[in-house]
Amino acid sequence: MQAPKIPSFFKAPNAKNFSFKPRHYDQDKERREQLIKEEKSPLRFKRNKIKQTAQKGRKYRILFLIIVLSLLAYKLVIN
Question: Does any domain span residue 69?
Answer without folding.
Answer: yes
